Amino acid sequence: MKKHVSVLLCLLLAVVMIFAMTSCGKPDNTNKPDIPDIGGNGEISDPTLGDIYDPNRPDYDFDYDYDYVKPDPPETEIMVKPELDPAYAAGSATKLTRMEGENAKVSLKATSSDIWKNQFSDVNNLAFDFRLSNKLCTRNLNDAWTVGTRVAFDFVSDKSYTVKMKANISTHSDEVYTPAGNFSIRSQGLNSKEDIIYSYADLEGIEIAREDTVELVSGGDANPTYFHFYVLELEVAIYEGNTQITFEFDNGRGCNIDYIEFDTSANITGWDDTFYMDGDTASGEDDGTMWYVSKQPTTSETGIFTATKYINGAYRTYNYSLPALEDENGELTEGYSSSVVEGKTQYSFDFKNDVYTFIEGEEIKATATLHENSLAKFAGGATTLTKSVGEVLQASDFEQVGGKSVSGIRIYNDKGADLGSALVGSYTMPAYPIVIEVVTLELPEGYTLYDCGNEQSNRLPQPVYGGVDKTLMNHSAAFGTVVSGTDPEDAMLGSVFTYSGKVSPMGVNPTTQVEEASQFRFNTVMSKNSAVVTLNKEHSFIYNIENLGTNALHLRLNQVNSGNSIEDGDTGVAIDLEPGESMTITINISFKKGSANKNALALFTVTQEMQDMKFGIAMAAKLAQ
What we know:
Number of helices: 2
Mean pLDDT: 82
Helix content: under 10%
Largest sheet: 7 strands, mixed
Oligomer: single chain
Shape: globular
Low-confidence stretches: 18-53, 110-116, 503-508
């Protein structure tokens, strides 16, 4: 027994001695200056601290009171400018490799080379012209965007060389344009140690006079003022393996990019010439942009090439000029091909891996097919409808249901992609096949459907009166949602309003309560010209409210005409809806307060404290004449 006690005492004494060596033996740093941080990796170095703080110390067999974890080494960036391609001096064979700007990656205000937002899916950021390489160019790297916008070309090289490169870029100045200070061109790769290696092209001293440029965009939605192009010749680095060459907007005025072109003996591969920012194909597969000839050119007159895309709840359509079929010498314009089919001359041109074909003077037709869930068929009970491209879809194109005409439709392309909702009487037929689903029927006689809440900036309710954090609000675009009413046949097209919580640092979505008695207001433009909401005349409003959230909805709706000033005796309409429930509200009112107004003001008051809100809202009105 005594022997066991002796062993335990010895072990205890050893532990105490180790503790003393490691804690009491530390030098006194009380009056020493701060030790600087080196390298940005959290490691510090000071010889007086001993081996325990040496990042390169060996692993020990025993453990201290804490575990030392050696941090990862900092990421290294090394500037490397390779030798000039020896083929130039030797007169050896080289190869031209052209990369189109529209096939490049684009990032808006990017922060990391591996984070590519590609937010420029809008066709407004591409320019079209037969004289452009591949008929397209980017229109992104300009002064309309934030510093940090980038266009990047990724490829693989089998050699590391400094090579000759041409870049066809536009200028923004009517006088002299200087690339340096407006944008930079950076080459980047990896060495054998996986370190980042890079270099910048030398743009200093380059001046581009307007008279030395060529205007390559002659019409359409692109302003030709900013599309005077110049072929910039310079040297850039390419690296063995993956290389990225990036144009980054720095300040002042950037540029639009048609193409870059390398002349080198290195073998260049890995370039994706089928990627497009606005959709992978011209035919719009996978909900890309639809391109089509909306007006045929003739031998002497230009036509129109149209791009349409459904973006953020609205159709965006851009028209670009197609050249006349014959040039000034009476020859077929370069870019077109022609052939005779059944006695008629057929013209075609290539664009984004597709071929566009048309016969001069022949009316362009489009076919719509009826969706299986449609509330109504086409006139005469037909399931297909053919109309001219650009022709407006009318209520008379459909059968009436229960005495009501068609009001709203939802459109899909023939591949099933949802292209959003539209109102009959305003939607024009595109040149590609579509599928139409009738989703709403006409309103009662005399009523007009309005974009509820369209006056506000970013469509946010304004003003709000206490208890509501405006930064947590979101209001979707108009007519993107079918909002149910009390009766299924009374559905209207509208939008979605949400009020949701922020994620806390712990990753938990906290309770986001809307205080009882707080108010917010939707302002809706009824007329952009004269006042139409007048005093002492009865106006009628119809609202559909549908609870799209996961919590009960408790509101009161008053139609007001000024601020949050409720008319005397107006108790409003109670909105108490469980998730999934909906209702139709009719308000007939003569305003006494305020003055003649161009707007309709829907005031919502919170009647019970709620967590989160999400509801669909649609509004129609019949104004007093």
